[in-house]
Specification:
6 strands, six-stranded mixed beta sheet, single chain, 2 domains, alpha/beta, DNA polymerase, domain 1, Rossmann fold
């Protein structure tokens, strides 16, 4: 039976939770919808996968090496409200109580840290790697040992993306995702790609020629307007590729020993969940925590 590890993209889940749930406060007046949603998603994942190991990553830098390469990176994103960021500290506090190790690195995104951990973990025998995120950039990491788990239905359910599921969704293989986004661009990150090339054209090109290199090696076989777009934007395509590709060697002090997961640690969260009035989370914990055996009654001989 292979061991399982979950690698959690905290920023992705927190944003999803915040926007999926209406604002609500704890009895003490603290806004906690993202806190509740994050731990609700996490409990769903843990209940389904029953991991042996777990680790979490956060974005810690406003500027990364991608911003240094391209001033416009993510420049068009609307800043999330302060009410979201105010909940990060509480989420991190509870992760600490639960002994969840947090790995993060200045100058890199959480995605890069997750990619680095997944690369290190591929060397382990009998290990299944589950990356918990709503960010489709992570599809480039999927292979026979690595899967992406995306929450859906407001975090009440999730879908596990295998290589086959990625191909079904995008029409390309996971190892073509980088080149796919190099062609189509990514408006959410302000990555241009090749203007005028959409999903269908990118799928067709990659199915025919395999990769961005393969496309440009066979550019003379591509006719008309498509050839013109590709030829005029070759530099753009390769520059976009450099922005899209995740880093696999972020300098972090990761080890499996640090990432050991024990479901019993969730008992430590019950007092704070009660304090925040997360009654449904406490009820769910009661169903997944191992039942304690009652001590046998001792009767006196006298």
């Amino acid at each position: 039976m292979p061991k399982k590890i979950i690698l959690v993209d905290a920023n992705s889940l927190i944003h999803r939770a915040f926007h999926a749930l209406p604002p609500f406060k704890s009895p003490q007046g603290e806004l906690v919808n993202a806190v509740y949603g994050f731990y609700s998603i996490l409990l769903n994942i843990i209940t389904r996968l029953k991991p042996d190991y777990a680790a979490v990553s956060f974005d810690v830098s406003k500027k990364t090496f991608r911003h240094d390469a391209f001033d416009g990176y993510k420049a068009k994103r609307v800043k999330a409200p302060d009410e979201l960021y105010e909940q990060f500290a509480r989420i991190k506090e509870i992760l600490g109580i639960l002994n969840f190790p947090i790995f993060e690195k200045e100058g890199f995104e959480a995605d890069d840290v997750l990619a680095t951990m997944s690369t290190l973990l591929k060397k382990e025998d009998d290990m299944e790697i589950y990356i918990i995120t709503s960010d489709k950039d992570a599809f480039q990491l999927v292979d026979e040992k690595t899967f992406v788990v995306s929450p859906k239905n407001g975090g009440n359910d999730n879908i596990i993306y295998t290589s086959e599921e990625v191909e079904k969704k995008l029409g390309i293989k996971p190892n073509q995702v980088i080149d796919y986004k190099s062609l189509t661009g990514d408006p959410s990150d302000n990555i241009a790609g090749v203007p005028g090339i959409g999903d269908k054209s990118a799928q067709t090109l990659l199915q025919e020629y395999g990769s961005l290199d393969g496309i440009y090696e066979n550019i003379d076989k591509i006719k008309g307007a498509l050839n013109k777009k590709l030829s005029e934007n070759k530099e753009n395509a390769y520059f976009s590729q450099g922005l899209v590709k995740l880093v696999h060697d972020v300098p972090i002090d990761f080890s499996l020993e640090k990432a050991k997961f024990h479901i019993n640690d969730f008992e430590k969260a019950i007092p704070i969940f009660n304090q925040l009035a997360f009654k449904s989370l406490v009820s769910r914990l009661a169903n997944i925590l191992p039942k304690k055996q009652e001590e046998p009654l001792q009767t006196s001989l006298f």
